[in-house]
Write a structure and sequence with these properties.
- This protein has one domain (about 15-215).
- The protein contains 11 helices and 4 strands, in the order H-H-H-H-E-E-E-H-H-H-H-E-H-H-H.
- By secondary structure, the chain is mainly alpha-helical.
- A hairpin with a 2-residue loop joins strand 2 (about 130) and strand 3.
Length: about 290
């Protein structure tokens, strides 16, 4: 059961990485921009969850408000930051995105202090359950259920709805999609809305699990998310999901096997280096 626990823990964190990294994949697939500020949206969702939960006594309401607020923040970031830079080389938008990440992180630090915030009442991490002989808490169950529901819904949306098909067409060939009447601008706004909402959900769940949020919580996650979309093949949603789960498992087992030499973050980037040495195109990318 020990290894089952490790596997489950790895899959749970992999699912959280997937919720975070999917937004990066959506933006890169559509605009060919590395949306590094996505990590700030993740932290924003976590802070909003704690603030609303502490003010109202309802964690569920905090999560809902965080998702809605982040879903509005995402398109605003596109409109104010990226849209004016689309005519410039991609690295210009990437530098601007890094600047926004630093700006928002410092803003959180000024508003909430270096130590961040904690929930005044959060019993869920200590509510322990036995699931098929595996010990798991309520937050971890919520992570599993919500990540499966959200990622399945996203997959169905992109393959079974007209809007989703329009999005895929815009990613594949924006010019042809536009000639068939697809509104590329609306697709971009929807892109940022969905990606930001998923990042906020991931941030809220991690905040619940850890019982606190702090200003720099998105910093390391931003690099891991970038590593994931590179591992999965830039622009590939399926590859992002596979790479996220693989990274979660590597971290879970690696901390036990070599944890005295390397921490979780070092293991993640070592895994990235090894995979890219073997498959420079990523786990699901086609060979040149």
């Amino acid at each position: 059961m020990y290894y089952v626990d490790l596997t489950l823990n790895g899959l749970i964190f992999g699912a959280m990485y997937a919720l975070m990294a999917i937004g990066l994949t959506l933006v890169y697939g559509l605009l060919r921009i590395l949306h590094i500020a996505h990590a700030a949206v993740y932290a924003f969702g976590a802070f909003i969850t704690v603030i609303v939960a502490n003010a109202t006594g309802s964690i569920a309401l905090g999560i809902v408000v965080a998702i809605v607020a982040s879903a509005l923040l995402g398109p605003a970031i596109y409109r104010l930051l990226y849209e004016p830079l689309l005519k410039h080389p991609p690295y210009v938008a990437m530098i601007a995105s890094m600047g926004l990440l630093i700006f928002m992180e410092d803003g959180f630090r000024i508003l909430f202090g270096e130590q961040g915030l904690t929930f005044t009442r959060n019993p869920y991490p200590t509510e322990i359950h036995q699931l098929f002989g595996v010990t798991i808490n309520t937050v971890q169950i919520a992570m599993i259920v919500l990540s499966v529901v959200c990622l399945t819904a996203l997959a169905l949306f992109t393959t079974r709805t007209r809007v989703g098909v329009a999005w895929r067409a815009t990613v594949s060939n924006p010019t042809i999609a536009t000639s068939f009447g697809v509104d590329a601008i609306k697709v971009r706004y929807l892109n940022f809305m969905i990606g930001s909402a998923l990042a906020a959900l991931a941030g809220a769940l991690i905040a619940l699990l850890n019982n606190f949020v702090e200003p720099s919580m998105g910093f390391v996650v931003s690099y891991k998310a970038l590593a994931i979309i590179v591992l999965g093949g830039l622009g590939s949603m399926r590859g992002t999901l596979i790479a996220s789960l693989a990274l979660g498992l590597v971290e879970s087992f690696g901390t036990i096997l070599v944890g005295s030499y390397l921490d979780r973050d070092a293991l993640a980037f070592l895994f990235l280096i090894i995979v890219l040495m073997v498959r420079p195109q990523g786990l699901t990318g086609a060979r040149a």
